[in-house]
Specification:
By secondary structure, this protein is an alpha+beta fold. It contains five helices and eleven strands; from the N terminus they run H-H-H-H-E-E-E-E-E-E-E-E-E-E-E-H. InterPro entries: Cell_wall_metabolism_enzyme (IPR050570), Dup_hybrid_motif (IPR011055), M23ase_b-sheet_dom (IPR016047).
């Protein structure tokens, strides 16, 4: 045949096929070399279909229908390929199961670590709060211990010792030991200040001045916590601005017996004892002259 081709004659079919490159399927896509994944999928589907068909037949009681009628894919016709596909499926499932377990274990360990961190932070906060509280208590205690030795202030203040007051020759005693006088009897801010003030740190013991009976123990406007004691001669002593009372109304007391603790309650400018003297239970008099008559000068 001549190689000459006319200008206008189209190429024949054979010529076109000869000019086109040959296209072949990859060897892996041929029927004899099916992909393992496809084989595994086909195996699962066919096995499942056979099981379903057999179950349906048994439920209907038909012996002929009980025989499995599943069709086998050509790709699984080779027993060796079937076993290989099953092995790959099992390996893949085992890999995913192991991955899920390791991921779950990792999440569990992360949660445990976070819990440990939070617990350590909570313990640290508790220790810090306890340390601050202990420091505050220590500072408060140190101030309370140092208060009796500090200088007294006008109208109140800290200060006397807690030793028992020495009785006079007449058997009377001062309401507190080593009294520090700070304010006297007289007019103050347009009203009568009806007693004497003695500096006394909060908690200083207060004593009965002689044998007598408690006639009042409680709260009163201006005086705060207070105690009135009537003695054998009818005189009534009043202790004002106390922090606590250790006797009750009607109770008999002896000279020097503790009846309470000094404080800073009521209308007070600082911790001190406000002492009033009411002869015969009447109006208040200047305690200085009355105490001097009993041999209790200061």
């Amino acid at each position: 045949m001549s190689d000459y081709v006319g200008r206008h004659r189209p190429p024949t079919r054979a010529e076109r096929r000869a000019l086109e490159p040959r296209r072949r399927l990859p060897k892996a896509l041929t029927a004899g070399h099916a992909l393992p994944t496809a084989a595994a999928a086909t195996l699962v589907l066919t096995a499942g279909g056979a099981t379903a068909a057999q179950s349906n037949a048994l439920s209907q009681g038909s012996p002929a229908a009980a025989a499995p009628q599943a069709t086998v894919s050509p790709a699984l016709a080779d027993p060796a390929l079937d076993a290989k596909a099953q092995e790959q499926v099992a390996t893949t499932v085992a890999g995913y199961s192991d991955l899920a377990q390791r991921r779950q274990q990792g999440n569990h360990e992360v949660a445990l670590d976070q819990g440990r961190v939070q617990e350590r932070e909570r313990v640290a906060r508790d220790k810090e709060r306890k340390a601050k509280k202990a420091a505050a208590e220590k500072t408060k205690q140190a101030k309370a211990e140092a208060a009796p030795s500090s200088a007294p202030a006008s109208g109140g203040g800290s200060a006397s010792t807690t030793q028992a007051a020495a009785p006079s020759t007449s058997g009377w005693v001062m309401p507190l030991a080593n009294p520090v006088y700070t304010s006297g009897y007289g007019m103050r801010w347009g009203r009568l200040h009806a007693g004497n003030d003695f500096a006394a740190a909060v908690g200083t013991p207060l004593r009965a001045m002689s044998n007598g009976t408690v006639v009042y123990a409680g709260q009163m406007s201006g005086y705060g916590t207070m105690v009135d004691i009537r003695y054998a001669d009818g005189t009534v002593s009043r202790y004002g601005h106390m922090s606590s009372i250790s006797v009750s109304v009607g109770q008999s007391v002896a000279a020097g017996q503790q009846v309470g603790l000094s404080g800073n309650t009521g209308r007070s400018t600082g911790p001190h004892l406000h002492l009033e003297i009411h002869p015969g239970g009447g109006g208040a008099v200047d305690p200085r002259s009355w105490l001097a008559a009993k041999g209790l000068g200061y």
